[in-house]
């Protein structure tokens, strides 16, 4: 009869750690590598003109001065300055305040963003974002042909 | 006499552990390579921030990216395109991909609006009305 060895006795109780460590390392590598360090992008939808159901672009009819909000952006001394319906605003917070007071009366008013060419896009998007946050839906961009 | 242990591998039995290891490694490799390939398609830009943006939905609608780099150069997809050419190329793409084509403007936040304005005009000329700006999420509290 063969005498059982000491090694055989240990096999009953020992847990094999190597495959578990393998899997744990693989999972770690997977999660580290798939973690995206890029910021996720979002979208700001725009409506260049209101589609009219025909293939022809719809004509934008200019409303009377009091029935639209014109947000003008100018760029002087490396600073963007804003004018909302002829009322100068030094900061975007002021612009927001004016927009909010108008929005409380009528959110359906069209907003026209008339931004000078020198204004950084980031500032233009800030103004557009404010209009959207205050609930305006008809926001148009003024653009000039060369 | 002590009976043999039941879990002792028989002489002809295949050890599955290395095979499972290799299988996992292959799965990880393919997942990672597809993930990185997806990230590489987007040009890295310092986009503007906005609080009212919405998450992009990967639907079946045709989409075209217009990238505006910090130096003002405009790329339609991966091809550098002069502003004068933009309307013509967009019109071709609209005819090829359909009327519900979305143009996604990915522009550096520092570029002047005059670099983006011709793109908006070109979209209107090409009768593409679905134009979106790519932005990074900003908390409204900031």
Features of this protein?
heterodimer, A: 146 residues, alpha/beta, five-stranded mixed β-sheet, B: 142 residues, six-stranded mixed β-sheet, 3 helices, 7 strands, 37% helix
Topology:
The complex is a heterodimer of chains A (146) and B (142).
Chain A: H1 6-11, H2 18-34, E1 41-47, E2 69-76, E3 79-84, E4 87-89, H3 92-105, E5 111-115, H4 121-133, E6 139-141
Parallel strand pairs in A: 2-5, 5-6
Antiparallel strand pairs in A: 2-3, 3-4
Chain B: H1 17-40, E1 49-50, E2 54-55, E3 63-68, E4 74-76, E5 79-80, H2 83-97, E6 102-107, H3 113-125, E7 130-137
Parallel strand pairs in B: 1-7, 3-6, 6-7
Antiparallel strand pairs in B: 3-4, 4-5
Helix pairs in contact in B: 2-3
Word description of this protein:
The complex is a heterodimer of chains A (146) and B (142). Chain A has helices at residues 6-11, 18-34, 92-105, 121-133, and strands at 41-47, 69-76, 79-84, 87-89, 111-115, 139-141. Chain A is α/β, with parallel strands linked by helices and 146 residues long. In chain A, strand 5 (111-115), helix 4 and strand 6 form a beta-alpha-beta unit. In chain A, helix 3 (92-105) packs parallel to helix 4 (121-133). Chain B has helices at 17-40, 83-97, 113-125, and strands spanning 49-50, 54-55, 63-68, 74-76, 79-80, 102-107, 130-137. Chain B has a six-stranded mixed sheet, with helices on one face. Chain B starts with 16 loop residues before the first helix and ends in a 5-residue tail after the last strand. Chains A and B meet through helix 2, strand 1 and helix 4 of A and helix 1, strand 1, strand 2, strand 6 and helix 3 of B. Strand 1 of chain A pairs antiparallel with strand 7 (130-137) of chain B, so a sheet runs across the interface.
């Amino acid at each position: 009869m063969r005498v059982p060895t000491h090694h055989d006795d240990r096999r009953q109780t020992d847990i094999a750690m190597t495959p578990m460590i393998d899997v744990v390392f693989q999972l770690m590598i997977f999660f580290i590598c798939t973690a995206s360090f890029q910021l996720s992008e979002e979208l700001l939808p725009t409506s260049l003109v209101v589609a009219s159901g025909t293939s022809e672009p719809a004509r934008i009819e200019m409303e009377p001065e009091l029935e639209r909000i014109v947000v003008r952006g100018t760029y002087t001394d490396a600073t963007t300055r804003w004018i909302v319906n002829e009322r100068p605003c030094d900061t975007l917070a002021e612009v927001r305040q004016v927009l909010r007071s108008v929005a409380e009366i009528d959110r359906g008013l069209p907003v026209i963003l008339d931004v000078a060419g020198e204004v950084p896009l980031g500032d233009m998007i800030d103004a557009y974002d404010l209009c959207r946050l205050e609930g305006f839906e008809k926001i148009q961009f003024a653009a000039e042909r060369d | 006499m002590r009976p043999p242990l039941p879990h002792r591998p028989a002489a002809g039995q295949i050890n599955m552990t290395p095979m499972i290891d290799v299988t996992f490694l292959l799965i990880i490799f393919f997942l990672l390579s597809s993930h990185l390939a997806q990230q590489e398609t987007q040009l890295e830009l310092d986009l503007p921030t906005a609080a009212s943006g919405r998450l992009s939905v990967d639907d079946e609608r045709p989409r075209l990216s217009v990238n505006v780099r910090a130096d003002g150069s405009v790329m339609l997809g991966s091809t550098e395109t002069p502003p004068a050419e933009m309307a013509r190329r967009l019109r071709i793409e609209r005819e090829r991909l359909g009327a519900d084509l979305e143009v996604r403007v990915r522009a550096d936040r520092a570029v002047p609006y005059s670099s983006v304005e011709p793109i908006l005009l070109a979209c209107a000329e090409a009768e593409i009305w679905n134009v979106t700006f790519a932005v990074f999420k900003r908390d409204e509290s900031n």
